[in-house]
Amino acid sequence: MSGSEVGRVVLSIGSLSKTFPAQKALDDVDLVLRAGEVHCLLGQNGSGKSTLIKILAGYHSADPGATAVLNGTPMALGKAAARERSVAFIHQDLGLVAELDAVDNLALGNRYAGRWWLSGRRERRAAARLLAEFDVDIEPGRPLAAATPGQRTMVAIVRAVAATCGAPALLVLDEPTASLPQHQVEQLFGLLRKLRDRGAAILYVTHRLREVFQLADRVTVLRDGRRITTRPVGGVGGADELVRLIIGRTPAEFSPPLPSPDSEVLLSASGVRGEQVADFSTDIRAGEIVGVTGLIGSGYDQALGLAFGARRRDGGEVRLEGRAVPDGRPDRAIAAGLAYAPADRKRLSTIPQWTARENVTLPRLPAAGPARWLGGRLERREVRPWIERLDVVPADPDRLLGLLSGGNQQKLVLARWLRVDARVLLLDEPTSGVDAGAKASIYDVLAGIAARGRAVVLSSSDAEELCAVCDRVLVMRDGAVRAELAKGELSVARIVSETIRDSPDDTQEGWHS
Ligand SMILES: Nc1ncnc2c1ncn2[C@@H]1O[C@H](COP(=O)(O)OP(=O)(O)OP(=O)(O)O)[C@@H](O)[C@H]1O
């Protein structure tokens, strides 16, 4: 890109507001995106980021009065950008087909977009050229099911770029790294930098503040639907200042838990196997917070579900305080004092048509009797402190869960399991999609649980999180625990290197559903 183009205004939005029936999600927001910049859009859960993107994508309409100019031409917000061939969106659901290879996935949606997609052979050549051009190291003819999550994200980006005939003016990404391990994040950043250097404006939504300093040129912070600031990353003092800008106050200090004493074993897993797990064996002691990590395909994201009995075990034994936890009987596991929150909380365990309070208090429903409305006042009293503690927006226990932002739904379903007083709490990716302020509160709650002599085991792909919160971390490779890092040995670099060590081939990782 020629120097003169850098900084050219690609998209300028003015006076953007969005009012939902009971909620103003965006309030008079201005935003200017320039050629050759990665622009991070930051804000707490519910601050309006997705709404802004959905308006750009044409999914929602804006309130009257908003203006938008794309590449010098005025456009109607809410419809036109979606059809603009120069704008590309990467949503969290990448919209790829696992059974098809990279070439066919690239062709999906592009087949009729440009003449060069018309013949099969030329399609293949064009696809291979595109993948090579963006350094996406993937075998074009293999089903994407065999690719890593990072490779799949990159295929989705290349596909979106192809739809703009290879030169997007604007690329919009909604939390693309939410489920990527660290080294694949680096590869993705390489691709994004390449697009930026070619002159694309990149609007990037993330809750991972480290990424802001690694990747962004400028940041815009939304709070309660209003734009709080837009500034160059160099003008932000550091992560602490960014958190202050995002949550509007200094976050409560999170003090890491004390190293666990040599206490009694609460949970003991030996030889647990099933799905991609060949041998999950560990002892978890009272007062501990233990992390489990690895690459997708290593089994780290299935181990806790198997231990709990939510996934079918092929063998092995789990004991809670000496008593066997039977396979496939979540009811017995819960009764014994084990609780488990799966990663895909929204899909697996929420009822969107029920209120926030009903979703949080769900595990106690049978005791409350069949008429769930009877418990309303009690439920509100119980749920309110959690709403405050985890900064759920809007702070209304009677709001239907399905109308809350994704992150706020996550917080509430997590609250459900934090509030049941389990002896051992098993959590898959507890803070995925959760904003920085609430993350600190969740860590605090976990530390409190451990301090009461309970234990927490969490699986996470976020090495920073593991360092911040865990007493020790188990690293899984090829279906078994291959390394155990004690508190003093925990660092992002160490976790990443243990995670990828001896990994036979990146492409062996399975499809992440
Ligand atoms: N369809 C809807 N109806 C009513 N309210 C909505 C709707 N969609 C979003 N909201 C509300 O608008 C506000 C902004 O939500 P939005 O999804 O934009 O937040 P976000 O910043 O993307 O949050 P997250 O980080 O959790 O994804 C929230 O308070 C949410 O409850």
UniProtKB/TrEMBL annotation:
InterPro entries membership: AAA+_ATPase (IPR003593), ABC_carbohydrate_import_ATPase (IPR050107), ABC_transporter-like_ATP-bd (IPR003439), ABC_transporter-like_CS (IPR017871), P-loop_NTPase (IPR027417)
Keywords from the named record: ATP-binding, Cell membrane, Membrane, Nucleotide-binding, Repeat, Sugar transport, Translocase, Transport
SMART domains: AAA
Keyword Lipoprotein set for record: no
Keyword Iron on entry: no
Top-level taxonomic group: Bacteria
Protein name in UniProt: Ribose transport system ATP-binding protein
Domain ABC transporter: from-to ranges: 11-249, 260-503
A molecular function (GO) term: ATP binding
Species for this entry: Actinomadura viridis
One matching Pfam family: ABC_tran
